[in-house]
Write a structure and sequence with these properties.
Distance between the termini: 56 Å
Strand order of the largest sheet: 1-2
Order of helices and strands: HHHEEHHHHH
Number of domains: 3
Strand content: under 5%
Largest sheet: 2 strands, antiparallel
Length: 217
């Protein structure tokens, strides 16, 4: 399944509130008629939207999410992108408290980010077991197309949401564009230190080898 575009997510969120006619979507979205039509056709084809008897577009995701068992989720395996967006959306509608919404969104983004890193490690293991280079390339391409691209898109969308919530809560507009500043500062610092340490280790060894080679020549 191809990843949802930002515009498709925006349409789904509007239809999650209530069914809408095409003209209503046109008024509420800063998009042209052809673009809206294209996205609606795509969403209908993927089974996320239907056009009911009153000629309104209606989201099917509410019906899907009601059947979804959150307790069955695995912490190391993020759920399919569209369901993830709907799950978080339904959670945020349960409360109007901004701090709680920030907590929900922050933990969701954190979960998705780290589970994605685990999945990257797993696919690296898979490629090492490939019989040849073409098979390894096929594994990587499939992973990027079917998993990584949608996951990064989801992270971008929800990180943007987190930034807006933080900006509203703290009255600091800068947070709307820099959502991770402060929220994951300690964790990001740890990741940065690991990266610096690993690079230093590599660079030191590389320099030693280069010096040895130069002496031999």
């Amino acid at each position: 399944m191809k990843p949802l575009s930002r515009n498709e997510v925006a349409i789904l969120r509007l239809l999650e509130e209530r069914p809408r006619k095409f003209g209503e979507l046109e008024k509420e979205l800063d998009l042209s008629r052809p673009v809206i039509s294209k996205h609606l056709k795509s969403l209908q084809k993927q089974g996320f939207v239907i056009r009911n008897s009153e000629r309104e577009y209606e989201s099917l995701l509410k019906r899907q999410i009601k059947k979804f068992d959150v307790s069955a989720l695995k912490p190391t395996e993020p759920i399919e992108t569209t369901r993830a967006v709907t799950l978080l959306e339904s959670a945020l509608r349960l409360t109007a408290d901004k701090e709680t919404q920030v907590h929900l969104t922050g933990s969701f983004v954190k979960w998705t980010l780290h589970a994605t890193m685990i999945s990257i490690a797993k696919v690296i293991d898979d490629t090492t077991e490939a019989k040849d280079l073409p098979e390894a390339q096929a594994i990587i391409k499939r992973f990027i197309d079917q998993y990584l691209a949608p996951r990064l898109q989801l992270l971008a969308i929800e990180a943007s949401r987190l930034g807006k919530l933080l900006a509203e809560l703290s009255k600091h507009p800068d947070l709307a564009t820099r959502p991770f500043r402060g929220v994951y500062e300690s964790e990001l610092s740890e990741v940065v230190e690991i990266a610096k340490s690993a690079f230093l280790e590599f660079a030191t060894k590389y320099t030693e080898l280069r010096k040895t080679q130069i002496k031999k020549t």
